[in-house]
UniProtKB/TrEMBL annotation:
Organism lineage string: Eukaryota, Metazoa, Chordata, Craniata, Vertebrata
EC number(s) recorded for this UniProt protein: 2.7.11.1
Protein name: Serine/threonine-protein kinase RIO3
Region annotation (Disordered) ranges: 1-20, 124-161, 496-515
Keyword Mitochondrion in record: no
Assembly mode: Interacts with CASP10. Interacts with IRF3; RIOK3 probably mediates the interaction of TBK1 with IRF3. Associated with 40S pre-ribosomal particles.
Subcellular location: Cytoplasm
Length: 515
């Protein structure tokens, strides 16, 4: 037997109807290719089958390869050069694959990625660096810029005769104005003009430019006002940092919240922290934060610029630093009152425009103002004589005039009156000191007369009782005229001699204003 059949013979497809051959459920008719055993054992057939498998597994190699040694038809394994080239290509392909794995491992899910593209071995068959992997940021094409930019020559025009184009051409200027919009602030939305041949006239561009600058300055002003000013029941970042430092240092235990707001300050309640060797911290504290906005202080500089204690420093400071001086002034005035024994908040510490004092009240509840509390006739009479005594002490012992004394700045706590808000207090030798004192006497007299205190003096009698001056005027106009004359006399003395009059005589009498 010379040959052995490899494939089985197909069944005879006998004659039959046409519908049987086209029946989808029928067995398909297959034709077998018979070959001998010698063909199966042939080495040439094995090489051809291997090449077919390689082409099916690596189609890109065959499609993009160059040179006769990769076609698979003329492979000569006896050539050392050919083997070296094949081995080098295989090594380069493995090297590039390793680089891609390292790159993917390092980048991960990061938005900022690195690339090893410069270290790869580029070959024609390498299709991994396709255009899908190229990021749009790597391209050098700018959609807003012309492919071939045209420059205007020095002479200022292009062309000749009727085709001349100057630098003032409407189309050229319009395109330049559109490109200049990129220089506007990022907050100014100019839209997306890619693919549009936009031309802005000079009038429209100038209007947009002015509006952009105005919006930028407005935004800067709003940001500065928000960052550098205290608002209603709020503090700016710098003030908040001062409060944080006080809490972190242990001076304050915690800050509970806002308890009062006024024209010039915001008052917070806080619990005191650990006491130090030179400082006693009360259990409850009041933090007075002076507002850093200047709107409330435009008409209040007269309280400080003519005060000899701060007059030399006033002219050298900018308006923002004056607010710190205002807080310092209240600290000094409270210290004088405390040394004289007048009921007032105790100063704990001053940090720039933040003044920490003792809290007048209990359990986070502030003491009521005198205008809000309902007192009996005996308590009202008692409060009146307390205030009269405190005004005399303030004038004679502390050498101060409250300058804003009313039922709004007096608290009722522990069956007695407490004075607060003395940042505007001045000395009697102030150019307007006596006017301020007369105004305080008027407020106090009117309040207690309306409260039913029969012993309450009128404003002129109260002024003489507090100051010790004997001004005998029949009406209020003449009374104020004599007060202005005394102030003028004291001001002339200051200008002539360069110093204030002696506020107290040797026997302890009130200030002497006459010559």
């Amino acid at each position: 037997m010379d040959s052995v059949g490899v494939a089985a013979a197909a069944p005879d497809a006998g004659p039959g109807p046409a519908w049987q051959s086209k029946c989808p459920w029928g067995a398909p008719s297959t034709t077998s290719i018979s070959c001998s055993l010698a063909d199966v054992m042939s080495e040439q057939l094995a090489k051809e089958l291997q090449l077919e498998e390689e082409n099916a597994a690596f189609p890109e190699v065959v499609a993009a390869a160059e040179g006769p040694f990769i076609t698979g038809e003329n492979i000569d394994t006896s050539s050392d050069l050919m083997l070296a080239q094949m081995l080098q290509m295989e090594f380069d392909r493995e090297y590039d694959a390793q680089l891609r794995r390292e790159e993917k491992k390092i980048n991960g899910d990061s938005k900022v990625s690195i690339s090893f593209e410069n270290y790869r071995k580029v070959h024609p068959y390498d299709s991994d660096s396709s255009e899908d992997e190229v990021d749009w940021q790597d391209t050098r094409h700018d959609p807003y810029r012309a492919d071939k930019p045209t420059t205007t020559p020095r002479r200022g025009f292009i062309g000749k005769g009727k085709d001349i184009t100057t630098k003032h051409d409407e189309v050229v200027c319009g395109r330049k104005n559109t490109a200049r919009m990129e220089n506007f602030a990022p907050e100014f939305q100019v839209g997306d003009g890619i693919g549009m041949d936009l031309k802005l006239s000079n009038q429209v561009f100038n209007a947009l430019k002015q509006h952009a600058y105005s919006e930028e300055r407005r935004s800067a002003r709003l940001h500065e006002k928000k960052e550098h000013s205290t608002a209603e029941k709020a503090v700016d970042p710098k003030t908040r940092l001062l409060l944080y430092k006080m809490v972190n240092s242990g001076m304050l235990e915690t800050i509970t919240g806002c308890i009062s707001t006024g024209k010039e300050s915001v008052v917070f309640h806080a619990y005191g922290g650990n006491a130090t060797e030179d400082k006693v911290i009360p259990p409850e504290c009041a933090i007075k934060v002076f507002k850093t906005t200047l709107n409330e202080f435009k008409n209040r500089d007269k309280y400080i610029k003519d005060d000899y204690r701060f007059k030399d420093r006033f002219s050298k400071l900018n308006p923002r630093k004056i607010i710190r001086m205002w807080a310092e002034k209240e600290m000094h005035n409270l210290t004088r009152m405390q040394n004289a024994g007048i009921p007032c908040p105790q100063v704990v510490i001053l940090k720039k425009h933040v003044l920490v004092m003792s809290f007048i009240g209990q359990d986070q509840v502030p003491a009521p103002k005198l205008k809000d509390v309902t007192l009996s006739s005996e308590d009202m009479k008692k409060a009146y004589y307390q205030i009269l005594n405190m005004m005399q002490q303030l004038y004679r012992e502390c050498n101060l005039v409250h300058a804003d004394l009313s039922e709004y700045n007096m608290l009722w706590h522990d069956e007695k009156v407490w004075l607060i808000d003395v940042s505007q207090s001045v000395e009697p030798t102030h150019p307007h000191g006596l006017e301020f004192l007369f105004r305080d006497c008027r407020n106090v007299s009117q309040f207690f007369q309306k409260g039913g205190v029969a012993e309450a003096l009128n404003e002129r009698e109260l002024f003489n009782a507090v100051s010790g001056l004997n001004i005998t005027a029949d009406n209020e106009v003449d009374f104020q005229a004599e007060i202005e004359a005394l102030e003028k006399m004291n001001e002339d003395h200051v200008q002539n001699h360069g110093k204030k009059l002696s506020t107290f005589s040797s026997d302890g009498d009130p200030p002497i204003y006459d010559e």
